[in-house]
Amino acid sequence: MTEQIKNKICEYLANHYYLNLATVSPDGRPMAHTMAYVSEREIVYLATNKNTRKVQNIMQNPQVAFTVDEDDPDWFDMKALQVEGKATIVASEEELREVGEIMAAKFPVIADLPPDPDTIMIKIEPAVVYYLDYSIEFGRRESVNF
């Protein structure tokens, strides 16, 4: 059953475009950031400017959370992911190149953007993922550890 849920989670990530990333500032204030992302199975990648608050927060505390969900008014058909994990800055040139190709395939508009030396890639590896599927039963939530 766990593998089946993991596959559903990976499929859900692959078929969505935006997530809501939660970080904590150095003085303990929670912050939410809407971000475009790509995924490689359960691992999520985000491109952002190295001088953003989210990067500053991650450098102080790499523990993050994010949600991916539908914008559907029918509560009884809701599906979503709630993810807790660890964020790191991608340093490997090979990984950056591979993720860049995945990102360009998912978001073709970036092919026309000039390179930005201040852009970095954040990698989020999940620790636990909650898969919500209210179409099965209202309030249904299954968890998987990675």
UniProtKB/TrEMBL annotation:
Pfam families: PNPOx_N (PF01243)
Cellular component, GO annotation: cytosol
GO molecular function terms attached to this record: coenzyme F420 binding; oxidoreductase activity, acting on the CH-CH group of donors
Keyword Oxidoreductase attached: yes
Assigned keywords, A-Z: Oxidoreductase
Domain Pyridoxamine 5'-phosphate oxidase N-terminal as annotated: residue spans: 7-132
Keyword Oxidoreductase appears in the UniProt entry: yes
Protein name (Swiss-Prot/TrEMBL): Pyridoxamine 5'-phosphate oxidase N-terminal domain-containing protein
Source organism of this protein record: Methanosarcina mazei (strain ATCC BAA-159 / DSM 3647 / Goe1 / Go1 / JCM 11833 / OCM 88) (Methanosarcina frisia)
